[in-house]
Amino acid sequence: MTVQSEHTTTARSFKHLSLWERGMIFAFIHEKRSAGYIAKRLKRSPSTICREIERGTTIQLRTGRIPYQSYFPETGQAVYIKHRINSRKTGKQHLASNFLRFAETKILHDKWSPDAVVGYCKTQPQWQKEALVCTKTLYHYIDRCRLAVRNIDLYLKVRRKTTQRRGRKNKRILGQSIEQRPESILTREEFGHWEIDTVVGRRSKDEALLTLTERKTRQELMIRLANKDSESVQTAMKELQERVGSSFAKIFRSITADNGSEFADLSVLLAPWNCPVYFSHPYSSWERGTNERHNGLIRRFIPKTKSIRNVSDTLIRKTKDWCNQLPRKILGYQTPQACFLEELSTIT
Asked: Which of 247, 243, 178 lies closest to 215, judged by CA?
């Protein structure tokens, strides 16, 4: 039988020794071969062979005779397997069991996002000594079904855009265009600039909700409207002004609305309080993204299929409080309510 000695195939580098190679090392050692000779025959580095011999050498006891040291391939293989097991990074799931149970409760019952849970715990003193996982790891646990939470429980993760945007033109803007809005409002550095919209239920002519969102703190206001029309909006804003009192002009410095007919008289109504109203471009809801985002949060509790007339005042108040007490990443995981009260303390 002939053996091919010339070939173009090179040995794979950085490959661990096999049990067969360890057996060859054992045989060469009994032939009194050097580590350099063994390395050349196995096409390995001499340092690899020396380390393997050191790992696989063990003391053997013989009855009535002096113990001796020798290399055994089985010993080298056992040490290799042990080192491989210890080299693997262990997960933190068993260490962070308290945090994960808390996360399940907040996501399933309080409808928090995974990031809100992680950010909230990082800012709370009672969690500083507890083991936590990052937002990405928490999502991985959910994806791999390691928690009671499933992807279907994460509202934004299962949303899909199924319709294409249609360009529409020639809709009249009701007042000052959003293009005239000062730069200070756009940067969100100044408190008191709001976005406004209405939320309707199953029947568009039924009762509606008036929602206002403060751009800097993300504070949310929700007011029930008798109808989705200009008269109802004016009534709600007048009641709001009476509740706020003399601080109304400091708290409401501007309002950005869409081109819905219910806001047609809003500019005239707020003019005595020096509160300008800016209108976004037609069919451009992203120009009032903060309020639209909050309307999406409201839909978790008040779906479109439910009539606003059948929504209790308790549920409306609970939904508003939930929005204002949800920790936000953009606020450094503070709540909108805490930020809003801090701003109020500086102007009242």
From this structure: 178
The tens digit of pLDDT for each residue in 268-282 reads 999 999 999 999 988
The whole-angstrom separation of Cα 298 and Cα 199 is 9
Phi, psi torsion values for 61, nearest 5 degrees = -100, 135
CB contact burial 96-114 (16+ within 10 A = b; e otherwise): beebbebbbebbeeebbbb
pLDDT of 17 > 60? The answer is yes
Query: Is pLDDT of 259 > 60?
Result: yes
Helix H or strand E encompassing 41: helix 35-42
Of 318, 321, 348, 346, residue with least CA distance to 336: 321
Do 327 and 123 touch, CB atoms closer than 8 A?
yes
80 contacts 62 by C-beta, under 8 angstroms: no
Residue range 9-23: mean pLDDT, rounded: 77
How much helix, strand and coil, in percent to the nearest 5, is found in the chain?
A: 50, 15, 40
Q: State both tokens at 151.
A: 């992807």
Q: pTM of this prediction?
A: 0.65
Q: Are strands 65-71 and 254-257 parallel, antiparallel or unpaired?
A: unpaired
